[in-house]
Amino acid sequence: MAIAKEKLTDMYRTMVRIRRFEERVAREFAEGNIPGSVHSYIGEEAVATGAIAHLRPDDYIMSTHRGHGHMIAKGGRTDRMMAELFAKKTGYCLGKGGSMHIADIDIGMLGAAGIVGSGIPIATGAGLSAKLRGTDQVTICFFGDGAACIGRFHEGINLGAVWKLPVIYICENNLWAVSVPTSTSLAIRDIADRAVGYGIPGVVVDGMDVLAVHEVVGEAVARAREGEGPTLVEAKTYRFRGHFEGDSGTYRPKEEIEEWQKREPIKLFEEKLLEMKVITKKEVEEIDKEILAEIDQAVKFAQESPFPKPEETLENVYA
Amino acid sequence: MREINFRQAIGEALDEEMERDPRVFILGEDVGKMGGLMGEIGGLYQKYGIDRVRDTPLSEAAILGAAIGAAITGMRPIARMRFVDFLGVAWDEILNQATKMRYMFGGKIKMPLVMDALSGAGRRTAAQHSQSLEGMMMSIPGLKIVLPSNAYDAKGLLKTAIRDDNPVIFFEHKLLMWAGPTSEVPDEEYLIPFGQADIKREGSDVTVVATAYMVTRALNAAEKLQQERGISLEIIDPRTIVPFDKETVLNSVKKTGRLVIFTEECQTGSFAGQVAAIVADEGFDYLDAPIKRVNAPDTPVPYGIILEDFWIPNEDKLTKAINEIM
To answer: What is the ipTM metric for this complex?
Structure first.
């Protein structure tokens, strides 16, 4: 399926936006401007970008603790995101959630969560809701290889499968649950194999190749919209940084990191786009410049925004 | 006016709200053709169909998780969790998801979700089917907690719970569900607001705060004490413990000068302890005697008649506490 030129450029821009946002977050964190914990999406940009490119504004995504990339790909504004990380009142969550709970229901981003795997049944429920309301909205549920080992992976996907709900379960398998490699937590090579146990399709895809992700998730989204039920997609990917900012990640072999970095997803896509003549070297530079300016602006917005008042702690508990 | 029992109250409230609002639906184990463990929602599956009365697999985390996902995207689910003890299997959904999403996402989302579950001892069902967990639940901000003590209240409170935009846990005491007294209810619709205690019996000597099935037992004890010894108990049923109507309790203690909190729950970390703390803090000057708590011992609920009856608070234990402060 040919993808329109503008769509390809948009996807490229999204990947660069995620990367530049995360790089700046790392810097701001190191400088002490972000008080809480942050988990970087650098290295995994192709997964969120390729998958969410299929969604409409009224579709839903469910994110993880590593949620910045998903949020940006779904249309999240980098200034309000940065403000949230800075714990400012102008942040998406009024400074109450931070990085781990970045969300905005208005753009269909149902939440990032600090409890690994908790989003899987919730995404199933968003799918149930779409079905009951008679819409053709779909939900993409992201989770990691760590979440594939928690009970709710089973409960949530089984329920989505038995009720044939419009949900695409995407496992971002970055091979490491903090310091524990999948080789010691899983007796199977491919998490996608588990789909057999739920009677749904399971597909493995190269998570460093945005076009491959786009193609596989495209089929899954089409199935879901047509009422044919869920798909389990496993994207093999890699986080280039530690589990959280400040984690050196030295538990991972140097050779493994270098091997994955050879397949750096933005570079891979850029080379392909240049080869396809979708984009020129000059345009690549312009996009980068434009995004860097946007991120500068986002940081400025975050810096200049007010903190919430202490007594705002007491608000928003109940509707 | 008509007479209905507690089970009918639950069934009628669900039926009326489902008819009124197409966003309301039920999910849980055996809610479909079986109509609930005691047939309390019998007929709803036949009336509303498989989409709105959904039998689920034995997956409590997914039942509650799916209810959360549906609630934040425009539906109004009722997750029937069967026994409150089973909430342990879906604890994260209560502790970290349903009760926190609104707050941590900056107040944007609504969570119109009702969890209802059988609670309480007295059916000889032992440690994993008999607990009362309201004290533990009460310490989770973001949750509302309803503990009805009769059929009339159950109907009006459940309808209010379904219309609330927050997660509400609705406890159905087993003894009320199985063999509770009937109530007169009006033919026309009624709702009971949250945070409004009900004085089940007016009195002048001792204030007794009681919840759920302990209201029945408090009323029995009050009748006997009045007849045999002329002691007058004022029985207050908070009906919802979150939000809690402390004013009604403080006003009563102001009048009686004595307070006993009579609830079926392990004493440590209990709702009873919270009421005692509030009255000690804000109503100390009204008190003529120490505050008494009559609750269950800090043990799992035992099996069998001898042990379980020892565990459950009863009229004798309440009377003994009253004797100590009169």
So the answer is: 0.96
